[in-house]
Design brief:
The structure holds two protein chains of two kinds. Helices cover about 0% and strands about 55% of the residues of chain A. Chain A is mainly β. In chain A, the strands form two sheets. In chain A, strands 2, 4, 5, 9, 10 and 11 form a six-stranded mixed beta sheet that branches. A five-stranded antiparallel beta sheet of chain A has the order 1-3-8-7-6, with no helix packed on it. Chain A is globular, with a radius of gyration of 14 Å. Chain A starts with a strand and ends with a strand. The termini of chain B are far apart. Chain B is about 0% helix and about 50% strand. Classes of the chains: A mainly beta, B mainly beta. At the A-B interface, strand 4, strand 5 and strand 9 of A face strand 5, strand 9 and strand 10 of B.
Amino acid sequence: QKEVEQDPGPLSVPEGAIVSLNCTYSNSAFQYFMWYRQYSRKGPELLMYTYSSGNKEDGRFTAQVDKSSKYISLFIRDSQPSDSATYLCAMSELNTGANNLFFGTGTRLTVIP
Amino acid sequence: DGGITQSPKYLFRKEGQNVTLSCEQNLNHDAMYWYRQDPGQGLRLIYYSQIVNDFQKGDIAEGYSVSREKKESFPLTVTSAQKNPTAFYLCASSIGDRDVDTQYFGPGTRLTVL
């Protein structure tokens, strides 16, 4: 079993839709959760991060962590064609220094105008 | 501007050749990483370095080599021993000694074997 599981999609939605992207994980010691956005042929860019459980909102994006279910989500409201990209989740334990990130395989999202 | 640069953006290699991919960062980060990205397989760690003159193998180090002579530079050599080198290569860096060590990525190099 992989440490982090992510549905690869592809996911296609109409412009303006609410998008839900999800990852599950097996390591209950993960405490720090990140979402990266990767446009085609570009490097991933850090979109959001959250610590432990709860929600974090940044504009149209909301990151949600449910540690009891070992499940994290990224919601995109009022989706735009510019949101079309691959979204990767990543997570880590605390206090482990460098090389402690575990990545999902990424979900490819297309927002259709 | 602070950030991570990778060069070249595109690289073509003939079979049997070694090629070196460049990665430079001016973020003053201690840790640097090389990943390989293939369709449907996510990011796979090749090598990482937590400090100058030290580096560790990742999950798929066979056929690759690295050096870390300077803090800001972490070049990756893809050797002829790498059987399937065509992929998108990503370099990343992080502070390296924090409780939570976020990685920041460069723009990538796409390597194609002819």
